[in-house]
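[Q] Does anyone have a clean structure-token version of this?
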Amino acid sequence: MKKIDNDTFAQLVHTLQKPARYAGGEYNRIVREHAALRMAISYPDLYEVGMSNHGIQILYDIANSIEGVACERVFAVPPEFEARARAMGVPLFTLETRTPLRALDIIGFNFSHELLCTNILQVLDLGGIPLLARERGVGFPIVIAGGEASCNPAPMADFIDAFFIGDGEEGIRDIVKCVLKGKLSGLSRAEIIDALGEIPGVYLPPAHREVWEGDTLAAVEGPRVRKRIFRADTPLDPERPVVPSMRIAQERAVAELSRGCANLCKFCHAGYYDLPCRNHLPGPMRERIERMIANTGYNELTLTSLSISDYPYLNEMLGDVLPWLTRKGVSIALPSLRVDLATLPIIERISDLRKSSLTFAVESASEKMRRHAHKNLSNADLMAILARVFEKGWRTIKLYFMIGLPGCERIDEAEATVELLRSINGLSRGKKEINVTVSPFVPKPHTPFQWERQMDRAYLIRVISSIKRSVTRNITIKNHDVDASLLEGLLARGDTRMGKVILAVYRDGARLDSWSEHFDVARWNRAIDEHLPDHARLMDVRPDDAVFPWSAVETGFEMLVKHKKDRGLPAGKKSLPSAAPDETGPEALGAALKDFSRTYETNLRVRAMFEKTGDARFIPHIDFMEIIKRALRMAEAPVSSTQGFNKRERISLGYPLSVGVESVSEPCDIDLYESADLKTLLAGMNQRLPAGISVKAIRTVEGKESLQAITAGFEYRLETAETALAQAMAHNLDARIGFTRTGKSGTREVPFETAVIEHRAEVGGTVLVIPAGGENSVRIDDMAAALAGVSKDELYRIRIVRMKQLMKADGEGLREIQ
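[A] Here you go.
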């Protein structure tokens, strides 16, 4: 099957929002034009969410390390892309080589949560792959799913050829090598899938059957599949992860410190499904972290763990890496750090000089319900911690509550929550910002609460509304979508009958259900009412001897789950540890901060001239700036920085370039705190830029005026291979047509003489010189569309290149900015 060519790609994405989502070309991507096995891995959500998923980066790195294998990426797409792709008849394709999905050997999905189910169908459908596994024959890729939501394969069993149960690092090599061997040996698609079923941890839906007695699930027949567990002293975090060329949800380097959690909160799916607890040794971590930062240019590092407070080497780790990170200007985030008197000194140390916000997962306002859920926090402890936090000067706290937990029927949840919030507000004297998020409880498989009831919509809405009505203005209440939470619960504990619901709702238009602007509960209700009329039973309490749809999946901790089912924390259990000594090396950190303070100086300014061509034209201005910053960090350029909490490199670009327009003249001024070899700097940056972006020159400059202040005009070149368009542009230039300018104050006409300083015909194109900024300037893409007599949707037919940026000459006229 032919790959998507450049002209088709440009026509497809030219006027879409965020076309950089589809352009690829990122730094550290891996492109193999020739491979014995070609596969794609997908986090089935939009690019900016999918590329924030650390698991995708790990699996991409491992798969591409296998000889003969090319692993590429694909993500779900928004409605505008889907509509245009269908209208043009263009199949969904991979980012690396724009290979249509149907031409692949494997498509692997990280199915991390239930509301991604319709996105999986969208990726398959747009890729030209039958949605139902039973309808895929010779020539179609094998569809595999893993991740947290795969712990109950039943709802998606109709669509997935094989599930992997467990940690992806543990199974991806076995799976990929099995398919590669089968392909090279000439096995049929069905024979390869059967061979996959022999791999520990692989669950084949056709090998399992639900047995019903009336409306009760009596058994799940088929082989038991044991979860595979990755065990190693060091994680497999990639040292050269793909660095997106556009903003994503979480832009940072990631290092995993541990997996699993010993707290065993009974509502926490990850806490049980990710057992056992495994701590990575701190010894090799610093070198690994240094290489990740050096290979990405990120200025933030996240240390991940389900409960990083329980990582036994945390102080040792921070003492080792924090001074080095501080010298590099890299901040550190510990997103799962439990706030208590023991960890507060650590939080203050990594929070630099400004105390912004702290997060507390309270879960329930009722101590009794917390203890039943195995949540180790008392109200007295919470108030003691908050008193210290407010005393230390923190301005904002974030509180997370879960409503509808088992036992909620025996208390007034709204009243208890409001009373606790009033106490906290009183402690702050009403002078602190208190942000509260309320989430409905969702019972999940393989947890002690898998038998429990999920409270209905009326109850959840009533509690949330009552809380919102009863708090003071400085307390902000937000809540997760109740309907989405109820759907998540239905999918999480659903059986194979959910497959008909998912297929029907997808065909009715459901997509991107975890996005509030796309989620439509009415669609889901129609499908559920038609195909699962007794769905209310699935939300109710399950009997102790219930057979679950996931009964064929074994984690190895089933006895622990049963043991914890009716047991909570004892009432007298102490939950607040005494403050630990600060072992994060204050002297070393102070010296590191002093070293970093050198960057506040500016000794010289250099100007780098960038080119931004090819698919890089789809990268927005603000993301282009971030790419330059990352390249400078990786090249170890001595770039000056601003002072204050939000420290920023002192670099500046000129006027933004319209998305879709190329440029061979993008000057960037960079302040340096010490001299540098500019030839070495140029080479270092060019080695660390994504496809289509390069530095063609760099030199020192005098003066402190900004580029925007000195820029007076631009020279553009318009090129087209279509004779009719070229003739139309020539005619309209000769006719000196006027242009329409649309701005914040509305639309108005701009005469040709005002909008165009100079124009001339050249071989193969037309050159325009236009003014920069001001009320009379017209965007070059608007101008090109008007001259060619086409809509902006048709501008893919014209190549627009910024050739020069111009400043006023010493006499009259303009000269090029060098």
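[Q] Thanks! Anything notable?
[A] The longest helix spans residues 168-184.
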